[in-house]
Amino acid sequence: xxxxxxxxxxxxxxxxxxxxxxxxxxxxxxxxxxxxxxxxxxxxxxxxxxxxxxxxxxxxxxxxxxxxxxxxxxxxxxxxxxxxxxxxxxxxxxxxxxxxxxxxxxxxxxxxxxxxxxxxxxxxxxxxxxxxxxxxxxxxxxxxxxxxxxxxxxxxxxxxxxxxxxxxxxxxxxxxxxxxxxxxxxxxxxxxxxxxxxxxxxxxxxxxxxxxxxxxxxxxxxxxxxxxxxxxxxxxxxxxxxxxxxxxxxxxxxxxxxxxxxxxxxxxxxxxxxxxxxxxxxxxxxxxxxxxxxxxxxxxxxxxxxxxxxxxxxxxxxxxxxxxxxxxxxxxxxxxxxxxxxxxxxxxxxxxxxxxxxxxxxxxxxxxxxxxxxxxxxxxxxxxxxxxxxxxxxxxxxxxxxxxxxxxxxxxxxxxxxxxxxxxxxxxxxxxxxxxxxxxxxxxxxxxxxxxxxxxxxxxxxxxxxxxxxxxxxxxxxxxxxxxx
Amino acid sequence: xxxxxxxxxxxxxxxxxxxxxxxxxxxxxxxxxxxxxxxxxxxxxxxxxxxxxxxxxxxxxxxxxxxxxxxxxxxxxxxxxxxxxxxxxxxxxxxxxxxxxxxxxxxxxxxxxxxxxxxxxxxxxxxxxxxxxxxxxxxxxxxxxxxxxxx
Lengths: 485, 151
Description:
- The structure holds two protein chains of two kinds.
- Chain A has eight helices and twelve strands.
- By secondary structure, chain A is an alpha+beta fold.
- In chain A, the strands form three sheets. Chain A has a five-stranded antiparallel sheet.
- In chain A, α5 packs parallel to α8 (448-458).
- By secondary structure, chain B is α/β, with parallel strands linked by helices.
- Chain B has a single domain, classed as Rossmann fold (3-Layer(aba) Sandwich).
- In chain B, the strands form two sheets. An eight-stranded mixed sheet of chain B has the order 3-4-2-5-6-7-8-10, sandwiched between helices. Chain B has a two-stranded antiparallel ribbon with strand order 1-9.
- Chain B starts with a helix and ends with a strand.
């Protein structure tokens, strides 16, 4: 808060005004002070010469009276000084240095003895003078005069008052003129700064500042305008090329999505259309086995059985492709899901269908993710089926699902005690039709993890795995928190 | 404390400083002060010998008779000569002499400056008319100090 009062934060106007005013104040102060000093000197000189003239006249007048020792006459002469109010003391000495006559305003001061020459001139609040009384070149006595300086003090006080009042008036006029003139400098700078701020805020590069004169400020203004002109042109070019680029991207995207849609439609129809002949093969194969099985020899029946097995596998493949195509194309319906409950259901289904192996499944309760319910189910069904499948040759089955929440994501880990895999093939794991085991070891289409990968990707998440052979496997699925948006 | 004649002698000297002679009669630069008759000053007057008044050195003279006093500029008339005052004054003023005396009422008898005593203080009187007729100019400051001026 105090920062606002520091001079760095003051506007240029104030700084300029302050600069001008401080210089003029200094100048006026110096002038006033010198005037006062000079006036003081002059007035002192004047006062001094006046007092000397008075003293000279009185000394001359009192010469005769001194000679004839006429004290009465002397008193008459010097009492005329009573009319001058500032005169404090007058003493007349005869030639021997004795006080012959005196005039005292205050009783406490007595005439100084002449044995020690008294201080003369301006001392303290008094002016003192000592003059010889002369007659025909002979000194016939001394004349001593002491005057108060209150008139001088009064005069100088009045003079200071007048001088500084005039100084203040001049300063006010100067302040007014400075206020007017500083605009010549500050106004263009203010406009320049204002324009720069507006450009920075609104990105309006059509703004120009008015150019005043041909001085540095004028040149700055034109340079600024030129610079903004260049920025404007370049900005225009950038915008044009961006528009072009966007159009190109949009064109490409629409082309691409058209091609993609066509491809998906193609793969869907292919998968769909493949089913029909496959059903025919399967149906007639079954009919052949039932109706004409006994006419075939052992080899024939074996071939037929292989044909039928292959048909089932192909059916599975087609189903897998359809699922994959569906999770790729389907519109997403995002909502909050209780993943733990969903996993429990899947596990229940798996328990009903398969082997009597002792199975221990532990699912961390209360895992919540955001996503499309059907897709997430497909993905985790695949992951749990894999865990089930690859643990089927163990003495017992152990599966654990845990979740770990970070500030920007949640990671679900599915760990099993199955056969695992070699980490050097981890790159192939999520690619369609790639399998790390032969169908004789474990059945499968090679589409399951590809489908999981596609689902996770559509949720802007990622999947990765960690395993080693015969040490079980762990699959991590990370969903970003920002999917809610 | 100075004696009466010390003061009077000092006055005598000071009178010469405030009196101007209309035209210098003699070529001699000296200003001669003469004492006619008995000298009441004693040694005191000797102090004036050689002092300078208005640029002229003083000289002293003691003439035996009035006719011997022609070269005097200042004539002090002793008390013993009070009887022939009119003759002395007429003679002296014809020759532009400044006449001074301590004889009472000296100025009323036509003398120019007369000493008077007021208590212990010595003062003086001036007959300005006599001075002007003798051709002497008396400084106004001196007039101011006189106890009486006959115009």
